[in-house]
């Protein structure tokens, strides 16, 4: 087979993997599920483009703006995380080609990534999919620099870091891991390369607008991290973090193990031993900080390139050749189990029934540290259309729609109403970071549609400000995390509501 034919075959197989990956992401979500809570916030950001937000940097809002221009349909919301997952496979495939790996090695690594936790990550429109791609791009550009010694790859690494940073600050841990690993390997020569520092300056320039925004807004990233630490990370156990790392790529663990071994036994990979130590240091940082387990997923894809090449060398002839088929069989087996347990392909009723029967993996730990019969993400994908429909119905019956203010308890409620509403003039708000900056109080507020979570039963302030407080409806979907969320109609105000809210926002009391 000549080189031209081999390249054609490689590209054909790669194209097939990309198509299968994108199509697969649409197939593993049951139509009963809606968008997830965080997705509504990200989609709302398209209407308020800025260099930063309370919980995420600006890239997500730009992608949301593109989705908005494409019609804001669910297809496009799901397309971009699927695309980033497919591109992660492409980068790993190209890494194998640059390392002179075989077509079998490419297919093995691509299959390992296709049938892994990435299929779970890539169903949601969150920064995580692009974050994983950015980690993989950084490692790829570093590999290319080691191979070629061309300075351009340092600058592409800087661009990859900037893209990742402007998408999710988690990418900083990737950089820390590499910097800590460099002195332990021959690649410490980078510290003597002036282009390494010029590339660092380029990265700083590219992320500067977000850093300036952080400064101008009193660094909300730190308050967000504090909030995460107090409400979510406090429930994270270090041993649970370690255990989950094994489950993410459980079907392809032989490939990962082969990768780690190859750095010390395969002479061709000795120059890349840096990646092993970067893995160790980065994982240690995450464990020390009690990070969420999925924060570390970006570490893994690049290692499938090394592991696949090493195994393709080991399993070339004799009886060992047939172990190649065993590798694919193992990956398919565990993926089948993953689909049944961790992907939203079944109805909520089926998951609850499995939990009642105490089947394996039928209990799910939420951010509050408690056990539930359905995954938190799945529960966060229910009840939103019902909420928006009921708010629309109430809104339609009000005589003076220009004086209506819709106030929600959280961004999921506000974002979902804004996404699903049939009325262009209707806009839901919330007294929470990001939304509080978007409030339009230049109008006379006579009526408030108040959305309250089931646990929010305090009506004292409502009765003080309004003579009429009516509970009109609530969310009935018992499987939704928003189950029991209440819809109140507040009317006949006792005070000038819009003036009061303007004063409270100026005093910082709307947070």
How many runs of DSSP E, i.e. beta strands?
7
- Gyration radius over CA: 25 Å
Per DSSP, what share of the residues sits in E-state strands of 2 or more residues? Answer: 5-15%
Number of helices: 22
User: Order of strands across the widest beta sheet?
Assistant: 4-3-5-7-6
State the separation between the terminal residues, measured CA to CA.
Answer: 66 Å
Number of domains: 3
Query: In terms of per-residue confidence, which ranges show pLDDT below 50 for 5 or more consecutive residues?
Result: none
Whole-number average pLDDT?
93
SSE arrangement, N to C: HHHHHHHHHHHHHHHHHEEHHEHEEHEEH
Percent helix range? 55-70%
Describe the structure in your own words.
- The chain has 511 residues and is an alpha/beta fold.
- The chain is 57% helix and 7% strand.
- The chain is built from 22 helices and seven strands.
- The protein has helices spanning 3-27, 37-44, 59-69, 74-98, 103-114, 118-121, 128-148, 152-165, 171-181, 194-216, 220-231, 238-248, 253-265, 273-288, 301-314, 323-342, 348-356, 376-379, 384-396, 411-420, 460-465, 497-506; strands at residues 364-365, 371-372, 404-408, 428-430, 447-452, 466-474, 486-493.
- The protein is globular and about 85 Å long.
- The relative contact order is 0.10.
Helix-strand blueprint:
Blueprint lengths: L2 H25 L9 H8 L14 H11 L4 H25 L4 H12 L3 H4 L6 H21 L3 H14 L5 H11 L12 H23 L3 H12 L6 H11 L4 H13 L7 H16 L12 H14 L8 H20 L5 H9 L7 E2 L5 E2 L3 H4 L4 H13 L7 E5 L2 H10 L7 E3 L16 E6 L7 H6 E9 L11 E8 L3 H10 L5
Parallel strand pairs: 3-4, 3-5
Antiparallel strand pairs: 1-2, 5-7, 6-7
Helix pairs in contact: 1-4, 1-5, 2-20, 4-5, 4-7, 4-15, 5-15, 7-8, 8-10, 9-14, 13-15, 19-20
